[in-house]
Amino acid sequence: MKINEHKLLEMKLRPIWGEIERARVECKGFLKELELTDDARDALCMITSEILENAIKYGSFINETQEFTFKIEAGKDGMLVQAWSPLPSAGIVENLRRLDSIIQWIRSFQSPFQAYLERLKLVAGQPLEDNESGLGLIRIAYEGEAILDFYVNENDILYVSALQPKLNRERTV
C-alpha cells in the first residue's frame, strides 16, 4: 500500500476473498486521514468492497498469487474508486455486454433508488439456491451515490471505476 501527497491510496491485491477485508481496513484508514465523515467513509468502503468483489469474481487470474491494482483517489471531481483485472479470453464479449447492460439498466431509471427497488423485487422472486443477487453495482450507484464506468484496454484488462462526486460538496479536498 502507498499513500502519497496527491491523496491517493494504491494497493496490489491477490484474487482471494480475504484481500477485500484487507483493502477495507486500508480504505478506512486512508479516508480517516482525509477527515471524511463516518457516513462518507462507510459509503466509500462499501464501494471498495463491491468493486473488488466484481474484480475477483469476473477477473481471469492465472493463480492466487497474481496481483491486480486497486486505487482510491481524492480529486477535484470527488472520490474515485478503481480496480483493474484481467479478462478471460473466452467469453470476453459476453461478459462485457453483461456489464454494459447492467450499467445501462441502472442509468435507465430516473434515480438509482428506483433501480435498487426494481432489483430487490427481482431478487425476492429468485429461488433460494440462486446465490447471485446482482445488487453489487446497483448498491454502488444507489447507496454509494456514485457514477459507474468501465473500459477494456488493448491488453484485455478491465478497468471499472466509481466516482463519488457528492463528497466534493461536503468537503473540499
Report on the structure:
The chain is α+β, with helices and mostly antiparallel strands and 173 residues long. It has one domain (2-170): Heat Shock Protein 90. The protein contains six helices and six strands; from the N terminus they run ββααββαααββα. Helix 1 (18-33) runs antiparallel to helix 2, helix 2 packs antiparallel against helix 5 (136-142) and helix 4 (112-124) runs antiparallel to helix 5 (136-142). The longest helix has 21 residues, at 38-58. The relative contact order is 0.18. The model is unreliable at 168-173 (pLDDT under 50).
Quickly give the CATH architecture. Answer: 2-Layer Sandwich
Give start-end ranges of low-pLDDT stretches: 168-173
Number of strands: 6
Q: What is the CATH topology descriptor?
A: Heat Shock Protein 90
Helix content: 40-55%
Strand order of the largest sheet: 1-2-3-4-6-5
Cα-based radius of gyration, to the nearest Å: 16 Å
Whole-number average pLDDT?
A: 84
CATH class: Alpha Beta
What is the count of helical runs?
Answer: 6
Query: How far apart lie the N and C ends?
Result: 21 Å
Task: Give the key terms.
6 helices, Heat Shock Protein 90, 6 strands, single chain, alpha+beta, 45% helix
Q: How are the secondary structure elements laid out?
A:
Blueprint: E1 2-4, E2 8-13, H1 18-33, H2 38-58, E3 68-75, E4 78-86, H3 92-107, H4 112-124, H5 136-142, E5 147-152, E6 157-164, H6 166-170
Antiparallel strand pairs: 1-2, 2-3, 3-4, 4-6, 5-6
In a nutshell, what does this entry contain?
The protein is of the alpha+beta class. The chain has one domain: Histidine kinase-like ATPase, C-terminal domain (Heat Shock Protein 90, 2-Layer Sandwich).
